[in-house]
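We close this part of the discussion by returning to an individual protein. Part of our work consisted of pairing the sequence of a single chain with a tokenised description of its backbone. The amino acid sequence and the backbone structure tokens for this protein are reproduced below.
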Amino acid sequence: MVRAALLSAVNAPLRVTEIDLPEPGPGQVRIRLAAAGVCHSDLSLSNGTLRQPVPAVLGHEGAGTVTAVGPSVTSVAPGDQVVLNWAPSCGDCHFCGLAEPWLCANSGHAADAPYAHLAADGSELYPGLGTAAFAEETVVPAHAALPLPDGVPLADAALLGCAVLTGWGAVRHSAQVRAGESVAVFGVGGVGLATLQAARIAGAGTIVAVDVSPEKEGLARAAGATEFVVAGEDTAKRIRKLTGGFGADVAVECVGRAETIRTAWSATRRGGRTTVVGIGGQDQQVTFSALEIFYFGRTLAGCVYGNSDPARDLPVIAEHVRSGALDLSALVTERISLDGIPDAFDAMLAGKGGRALIVF
């Protein structure tokens, strides 16, 4: 039996229960989790903003140790430490052929197939985003388990699987921040904190962190922010003032709200780049006039999983961790058990803290 946090239905509270987890089949691996991050995407899956078959075990940002492998698995072996990849690319679809694995058409298929059973009545359970990391153990496709580079603490490595790859990739791949450029980061949660660190590593000059909570200023500055702005009606104006009157060269939106996206766009200089990382609902409509699109010449881009190739990018990020340039523990504001997930969801809704990390 394995303890797991179960989502019985959309908008139902998570409850910790026991599940029956099968041994890995062909092409699968079984992993004992060391830690799992509580991401806003998990909240979006639980409330229906993102689609997820239920009942399900959520959790997609995790790291652990392989305990068993199924037939034909050669990429990892029992005893290997791994990071979960919730969007493993197939290598064969149109987007993989374009060298854009973050857009893989088949990466989400594992979430649609039952992977375990509820111990109480044998009912089928689905894995949240194909990984089901809110559990002591999980079974995933082998290509969803990436070998952990040496020198990275296993528990903190869970953050690599989503927050860090997303934030670092938004800076490195999507916005392509250059040394000396100014960067504004909207939302100082787990992804926002990773984005701030990535901007600092990229050599950005003025780095402005924006959040509704003034209590997050210390977290933001520790991550690399040189300025902190409490979100309000004049946010864009204040950012322009902090960047020589022009606006930020790059704005990264990590919230997923229409109002915040619009503000990030307005805070970007003429000719600058606005990257949207946050995942909003279909009801969140952003409006631009045709004239301003022409006049400002800004670039507005979506960013999926940091536009990253995890297999390529994890070793690079690990170098920054080993050198001390990237501090994974600085993203974590609370270490909890499985029972603490509902409170972590409430904290996210209230805009409190950075990343809550479940430690097993």
Observations:
- The chain is about 25% helix and 25% strand.
- The CA atoms of residues 168 and 198 lie 5 Å apart.
